[in-house]
Amino acid sequence: MRTDPRRPLITVDLDETVWPCRPVIHAAEVAMYAWLEQEAPRLTAVHDQDSLRAHRRGIMERRPEIAHDMTLIRRDSLRELLTALDYPADLADAAVALFRDHRNRVEPFAEVQPVLMRLRERFRLVSVTNGNADVFQTPLGACFDHAITAADVGAAKPDPAMFQAALGWAGVGPEEALHVGDDAHLDCAAAQAIGIGAVWVNRGDQVWPADLPPPRLAVNDLHGLLDWLEAGAPGWPAAGEGGR
Fold first, then answer.
1. Are 216 and 184 in contact (CB under 8 A)?
2. Which of these, 139, 136, 164, lies nearest to 150 by C-alpha position?
3. For burial by CB atoms within 10 Å, which of 127, 138, 147, 208 has the most?
4. 63-87 pLDDT, tens per residue?
5. Is residue 160 reached through a cis peptide bond, with omega within 30 degrees of 0 on the bond before it?
């Protein structure tokens, strides 16, 4: 269904593109573990944070068909560990709900919210993430028109499923879209592979991989993207974008 043919589409990665990921994940895991210490002390007596992570990795290896769904992996891992210790399985659901609440307590990079609000005046903005943050429960909720996660489509980037879902939602072709992300492979190369222009947000002064075609644009923060778009986005769209 075409939602608004007057505005082209911009898809935006979340973790490390619009907010730092590691601090909020760490805080969410600390909060969940503290809750488990109260509610399931037999579990925390035998598992620390590292062994809980190792168990989740084991679930991902044993069940690759759900490895893209971080929430399901966390829930099923806890269910397995809790029931083995004679705790009710629904404790895992409560623990994961608490984790998710803290997972959404992100602190966006300083320029992100005002820039995204400016962009939303001219473009439809869709978040696409391999993670499990709910963007509409974060400070950036008002910046986006739609959100898609790996769990929604059954596959994580670089699989094209999230990009294809965004194109379908917007009713546009890849030549009418841009993707903005921090990861050269998972974001930029994946978008380019299906013909979407890629904008690389390189906050850490990394070197672009020599084996990948260059992005349409590389910026240090979202101000660079806004400046480029307000200058008319020279070179976009262009024939043959990403045609690999």
1. no
2. 164
3. 127
4. 999 999 999 999 999 999 999 999 9
5. no
